[in-house]
Design brief:
The structure holds 3 protein chains of 3 kinds. By secondary structure, chain A is α/β, with parallel strands linked by helices. Chain A is built from 11 helices and 18 strands. Chain A folds into 2 domains: about 110 residues, Urease, subunit C, domain 1, CATH 2.30.40.10; about 300 residues, TIM Barrel. In chain A, helix 3 crosses helix 4. Chain B folds into 2 domains: about 100 residues, Roll (Urease, subunit C, domain 1); about 290 residues, Metal-dependent hydrolases (TIM Barrel, Alpha-Beta Barrel). Classes of the chains: A alpha/beta, B alpha/beta, C alpha/beta.
């Protein structure tokens, strides 16, 4: 009897193994990436760029519980026994890229800009109240999609700022780690900053750029007055008229009084000057985003010493010189001048972050390449997508480099990052692995 | 010796002579609109004469008989009874001709009730500018007071805008003003893509390319020809029922038959070439208007023999990349390539500025004599009235302007304007209001 | 005091002097260009005409005379008998701005054109081709009270802040009449007619806002008094800072001049009354088509006009405009300038002034309409508007007399820098054509 059960056990064991292997085989056939949630990983024998300018030719990275447990030259790093081994020779690991300005997952499309915002004869079909949302927490309206997350992973991006996109006072952004499909686990920082845009209302004040500037300034003055009044009232209400509650101004107080960050959208050189003037007037903790024409006002930018989120959208603004002098002039500017924006900043030793704002995942990488071709060094490009945005977001202790203790956001590429044929084959976000290896690789 | 036959005869003769004398005297009174008496004899003497065709005369005489020029020369013998006008210090020019305007159709451009040059709809060959033209427009005396004696008044809008008319700027009614009631059919083709005038005419409906527009015209012309064939056949054969009224075809027939020219408002170089081809294929008479990129295809326009009316130079060039002065250089290049050009005011309230468009082109290289011709003899030739107008020559109508200087110059005052031998009233809205409020001055 | 201390003081004094000297040298280094213009027919506007040369150094006119010489390296421009005039000044435009009107509300003095300068506007270059060097660019005429205007020099290619002419009078745009009433607009369903719909409503709303401004001033005065008192009340709070009323308060304080768009006589007469009622100053009436009807009133008030020469009959309120307006008012003693109010007309502003000769002015008087008169209205006649030693070298070179219909602008210079050069453009064209032909 014992001999028979042993044989049976053996047979059953082999069957189980066969089934297990089959299951794994079938699973590995699936071309789509599968998020494999495992507690510990050991990435072996890859080239590691731990930070811009710092490379380990053959190294190991140990990831546990979503954080980096260890990173270093291969011979120096022991592999924990419970770590799932990922053979990564031939691949390069970089810190996951951070795009500090996107409109990912937003449900609502940006309102169409009027053709001639200054033309007071244009149609007045809009509601009679300005559509302003300073108290909007953009997180509340997000609808994440896995396909979008995957697309951004393929572009190397693992962390994004999602900013609102409507109105002048647009609302408050959130910083997300693209670690899956559920919103709450993605949140790193909520809220991050107040976003302002020099756009206009239609049919209601302010419907012109000059009106918008006055509107912003008046709101900031009103916030100061509001805060002053409430402070006095709360300290000693006796004999003092109670200030009227105003949700708009209430929402602005942290940014005007407590100097929380305020991001200004700058779509041309004059927007940069407009933003700087307002930031100075109210001593705001200001950040400029867009800044596609920074190259035209380099001295001003240098003097200002503000954090910059530089767009890689090289289209010439419609009102710019280049767009008014015919197709040939515009095309030339868009292929030669605007792509060299980042290089101009680099030349002047001005630190900046790059963003994917306004671009699709595929045009993002293409445009980084174009910026590099126009004079941006690959190292500065990497810095602008890792260390610098992490610093601007106040997350330098958690993100931006591959260091022990930081969040395990990594991308593994076949080929050097930012080169044409390079592909992102694996991504880790918060220690969750995503495979993008294509068949035949 | 009462009632002798000789006495009665004498009395009778005296009476008759007296009566005739009275008639003679009365008919020598100052010109009134009805007075086109062939008896009128007027001479402008001691005047600097610019005939436009032929050499200038430093000091000479123009003799007017009735409504025509009897003689022009250094020394002209004056018949008895000639009224003499001293032209010392003045220059005599032929009256200017505006090749494209909205005089009499647009009074105050922002007030729709006073705007009559744009009918609704795209195909309107049947509308005639003469039927809406208001003589009482305040802009006509102002234009006339600046030396303009005749103008093309054109409708606008849609693809086929209507029939333009050629009028003289003198007359108590619109009918009295007519020189050519139906001068030409106006057709408006699209503007320059991406340019400032990227959309011209077409009555607010979807922009159609010139290619499509010409194809549509081709079809309409064909329809008109078939319409006529059917009408003719039916008129000869009782058994064939005549066609239903086809208004469009009816009014396109004169064009199709080559009797009525078409003024094509056309702008881009490729469109100009397409239109030339169309004109040649359809065998119609054509004049171009606008032609802002005409300079690029000047050779082809010259070969085709199509004259060009230059649009208002009070505009910006259609495309920045063609140069800030491309609009001004256009007529210069066309003229130098041998194309017959004429300037226009393209306006009603600024019709008096016609000479300054010519001068502006001269500032950018157009020969000054050619500039003057382009507002006198060339438009007369283009519109087929050169036998009567456009220069100071014997036999032509006495359309004469006496200017205190160069007629194309900004500062020149116009002293007298004769239209068909008749001195016209130079008072206008400007002078009337000025005189009225001058009275307010406290000395 | 011992010798050491004295030496220290001496050294410190020397260092201080050096720094001050260097500091004062800096603006010189940043100043305009150097040019020598030879053999020009100069129309100085204020000091007659002469044939000669102009020497420009650091953007200023250094010398006017015959057979002048310049330091080595100075660019020499051979005028060859062409006419040199002061750069033309257009006192009413809307160019170089991102936006013209904040038309949603009737009273918007808080908006400032200096906030929306667009140095990329190709209209700047277009104006340069017409010899224009300076513009008073303004809020539009959509509102009874529009916004604060700005005066710019047309330094094409320079950053926006370098265009602003700080010395000019600060001005506030007012408007009356049809544009403000929106009478030429179709009312859209569901949208009420904006107040004011009549001329009387326009004056009423201006009056109301100025009364509010007076109250605002009084409120702040009260606060200042209380806060400076020996025992200020515990619940004392400053009033809310209202940007709109701040600007109107500045008008009442005399810090801004009103520039009022007005066509018909009644509008101007009543605006003069408003100015008297609230004691504010008027810089000029814009367009003023019926000024010829009320020259006495305008003369008595000392208010000038900035007008078209003959672009009329486009609205009912322009139906009694006459081309004699500018010339007649000039003869009556008003300060008159001609403006373009158009990115197209601006390049033939000199032709518009030239027409005034036909209507009664001499060519010299006509030239004043677009040079010194305009400068006076803008408060910059100390710096520009005529060719005089010491003034800024804003000049334009014309092929014929600028008041001739046959003339053409060949070059435009601002503070001694050439911003438009027709020769240069022709050369570039020929080079480009040669390149094309060679390929």
């Amino acid at each position: 009897m014992r001999a028979v059960s042993k044989k049976l056990k053996f047979k059953l064991g082999r069957l189980a193994l066969a089934l297990a292997l089959t299951a794994i085989f079938v699973a590995s056939l699936t071309p789509r990436a599968q998020a494999e949630v495992k507690p510990a990983y050991a990435l072996l024998n890859c080239r590691i760029v731990t930070a811009p300018g710092q490379t380990i030719e053959k190294g190991k990275i140990i990831v546990r519980d979503g954080l980096i447990e260890a990173v270093g030259p291969a011979e120096k790093i022991p592999v924990p026994p419970d770590a799932e081994v990922i053979e990564a020779s031939g691949l390069t690991a970089y810190p996951g890229l951070i795009s500090a300005h996107t409109n990912l997952f937003l449900d609502v499309k940006e309102q169409d800009q009027p053709q001639n915002p200054e033309d007071y004869f244009s149609s007045f079909l809009q509601p009679s109240e300005p559509q302003e949302y300073p108290d909007l927490l953009v997180l509340k309206g997000l609808k994440p999609k896995l396909t979008t997350v995957q697309a951004y992973h393929r572009a190397g991006i693992t962390t994004v700022v999602v900013a609102p996109n409507r109105g002048i006072f647009q609302g408050q952004s959130v910083v997300l780690n693209l670690n899956g499909e559920n919103l709450n686990p993605m949140v790193i920082k909520q809220p991050w900053a107040l976003h302002l845009n020099f756009t206009t209302e239609r049919g209601v004040y302010p419907s012109s750029l000059m009106g918008t500037v006055a509107f912003i300034r008046q709101k900031f003055y009103d916030t100061q007055h509001y805060a002053q009044h409430w402070k006095k009232y709360l300290a000693s209400p006796a004999g003092l008229k109670r200030p009227e509650y105003d949700p708009f101004l209430e929402a602005l107080v942290p940014f005007v009084v407590d100097k929380k960050p305020v991001v200004f959208q700058c779509n041309n050189q004059e927007d940069i000057k407009r933003a700087l003037k307002i930031i100075k007037e109210f001593q705001l903790n200001g950040i400029l985003t867009g800044a596609n024409e920074a190259w035209r006002v380099i001295e001003v930018i240098k003097q200002a010493r503000l954090p910059l989120l530089v767009s890689l959208d090289f289209r010439a603004p419609a009102t710019s010189l280049f767009a008014q002098q015919g197709e040939a002039a515009r095309k030339k500017a868009e292929s030669e001048l605007y792509p060299a924006n980042a290089a101009s900043l680099q030349k002047e030793n001005i630190s900046f972050a790059l963003t994917s704002f306004g671009l699709t995942d595929s045009s993002f990488l293409k445009n980084v390449q174009l910026a590099i071709k126009s004079g941006l060094s690959p190292e500065t490009a990497l810095r602008a997508l890792t260390v610098e945005p992490a610093r601007i977001l106040g997350l330098e202790k958690q993100l931006g480099t591959i260091e022990k203790g930081k969040i395990a956001n990594l991308i593994l590429t076949r080929g050097p990052l930012f080169e044409d044929k390079t592909r992102v084959v694996k991504v880790l976000v918060d220690g969750i692995l995503f495979n993008y290896e294509e068949k035949g690789q | 010796m009462r009632n002798r036959p000789e006495t009665i005869l004498t009395y009778f003769l005296v009476l008759i002579l007296g009566f005739l004398g009275f008639l003679t005297l009365s008919s020598a009174s100052l010109a009134s609109p009805e007075d086109s008496s062939s008896e009128r004899l007027l001479a402008i003497t001691g005047v600097h004469i610019v005939p436009v065709t032929g050499n200038e005369i430093k000091s000479g005489t123009i003799l007017i008989k009735g409504n025509r020029i009897e003689a022009v020369g250094e020394k002209v013998s004056l018949p008895e009874g000639t009224t003499i006008i001293n032209g010392q210090g003045l220059t005599a020019y032929p009256g200017l001709i505006d090749s494209y305007s909205s005089l009499g159709l647009v009074e105050i451009s922002g007030v729709a009730a006073t705007v009559d040059n744009r009918e609704t709809g795209r195909i309107n060959p049947q509308v005639k500018a003469i039927e809406a033209l208001r003589y009482d427009s305040m802009h006509i005396p102002i234009a006339r007071a600046n030396g303009i004696v005749a103008a093309v008044v054109a409708p606008t809008g849609g693809l086929i805008s209507g029939q333009a008319t050629l009028v003289k700027l003198n007359g108590w009614t619109n009918r009295e003003m007519v020189i050519k009631e139906s001068l030409a059919l106006v057709v408006e083709l699209p503007g320059i893509r991406g340019g400032r005038r990227s959309f011209m005419g077409m009555g607010g409906q979807a922009a159609v390319s010139t290619e499509k527009a010409l194809a549509e015209l081709k079809e309409l012309f064909h329809r008109a020809r078939m319409y006529e064939k059917r009408k003719d056949y039916a008129s000869q054969n009782l058994l064939i029922s005549p066609p239903d009224l086809d208004e469009t075809s009816l009014f396109l027939l004169p064009v199709v038959k080559g009797e009525l020219p078409v003024i094509f408002s056309v702008h881009a170089d490729k469109d100009i070439l397409q239109t030339i081809k169309f004109v040649q294929e359809e065998k119609i008479k054509a004049i171009f208007y606008g032609v802002e990129q005409g300079y690029k295809v000047a050779g082809e326009i010259k070969k085709a023999g199509i004259p060009c009316i230059i649009g208002s130079l009070y505009d910006l060039p259609p495309l920045w990349e063609e140069g800030y002065d491309s609009l001004f250089l256009n007529p210069v290049i066309l003229n130098q390539a041998g194309v017959k050009i004429a300037f226009s005011s393209s306006s009603s309230s600024a019709a008096k500025d016609l000479p300054y468009h010519a001068a502006k082109a001269a500032a950018f290289g157009l020969d000054r004599k050619e500039a003057l011709k382009a507002v006198t003899i060339y438009p007369a030739e283009i519109f087929g009235v050169d036998k009567d107008m456009g220069s100071l020559e014997k036999g032509k109508l006495a359309n004469i302007v006496l200017a205190a200087g160069d007629i194309l110059e900004l500062g020149t005052t116009i002293e007298k304007v004769f239209i068909e031998g008749q001195e016209t009233d130079l008072s206008n809205r400007y002078t009337e209001l000025l005189e009225k409020f001058k009275k307010r001055e406290k000395k | 005091m011992n010798v050491r201390k004295i030496n220290l003081i001496k050294i410190n004094f020397l260092i201080l002097t050096l720094l001050v000297f260097l500091g004062s040298a800096v603006p010189l280094l940043q100043a305009g260009g150097n040019l020598l213009i030879k053999n020009a027919h100069l129309l100085t506007v204020t000091k007659g005409e002469l044939k000669g040369d102009v020497l420009i150094q650091n953007g200023l006119i250094k010398q006017i005379g015959e057979n002048l010489t310049a330091p080595a390296g100075t660019r020499v421009i051979e005028a060859n008998g062409r006419y040199l005039i002061p750069g033309i000044i257009d006192t009413h435009t809307h160019i170089a701005l991102s936006g013209t009107n904040e038309g949603t509300e009737a009273i918007t003095p808080e908006v400032n054109m200096a906030d929306v300068i667009n140095p990329d506007d190709t209209s700047i270059f277009t104006a340069l081709t017409g010899g224009v060097t300076m513009v008073h660019t303004m809020h539009g005429s959509a509102n009874p009270i529009g916004g604060v205007n700005v005066v710019l020099k047309l330094k094409w290619g320079k950053p926006s802040e370098e265009l602003i002419v700080k010395e000019a009078y600060p001005t506030l745009k007012f408007a009356l009449g049809e544009n403000v009433k929106q009478s030429n607009r179709i009312l859209l369903p569901g949208r009420p007619q904006r107040y004011p719909a009549t001329r009387m409503g326009a004056n009423a709303i201006i009056r109301r806002e100025l009364l509010r401004a007076k109250e605002y001033l009084a409120e702040w005065e009260r606060y200042e008094k209380l806060s400076r008192a020996k025992n200020p009340p515990a619940n004392l709070l400053p009033p809310r800072k209202d940007l709109r009323l701040e600007v109107l308060a500045d008008l009442l304080r005399g810090k801004l001049l009103a520039r009022c768009h007005a066509y018909v006589a009644t509008e101007m007469i009543e605006f003069l009354n408003l100015a008297k009622e609230f004691n504010f100053k008027i810089g000029a009436f814009e367009h003023a088509w019926e000024a010829y009807k009320i020259t006495d009133e305008l003369l008595a008030a000392g208010v000038g006009i900035s007008v078209f020469i003959d672009s009329w009959a486009y609205k009912m309120e322009a139906a009694e405009g006459i081309a004699y307006n500018a010339a007649y008012c000039t003869k009556r003693g008003l300060l008159v300038s001609i403006n373009s109010d158009s990115g197209e007309r601006i390049r033939r502003l000199f032709n518009e002034a030239g027409k005034a000769v036909k209507y009664g002015l001499t060519p010299d008087e006509a030239l004043k309409l677009i040079t010194i008169n305009a400068a006076k209205q803008l408060g910059v006649d100390k710096y520009v508007g005529s060719i005089e030693v010491g003034k800024q070298a804003d000049l334009a070179l014309f092929t014929e007399h600028p008041m001739s219909a046959y003339t053409r602008c060949d070059m435009t210079i601002i503070e001694g820098e050439v911003y438009f050069d027709r020769d240069e453009i022709i050369k570039e064209r020929e080079a480009a054509a040669a390149k094309k032909g060679g390929n």
